[in-house]
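Weekly puzzle thread! Below is a chain. First person to post its structure in token form gets bragging rights.
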Amino acid sequence: MTFAEWLYRYLIGKEMAGWDSTVFYPGPVELEYPPAGPGQRTQVTYGPERGM
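Winning reply:
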């Protein structure tokens, strides 16, 4: 399974690594960008709702 397929399955709540490996967190996807340099804060953005 490619990373893209694994990520897609993770985002929609399907099994990723075999039987009963489903993980689903309702709500929008949260993306956290690390600081680009010293003294900068972490940036958090929200993507679309899950369940494409």
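Puzzle host: Confirmed. Bonus trivia for everyone else. Residues 3-49 form one domain.
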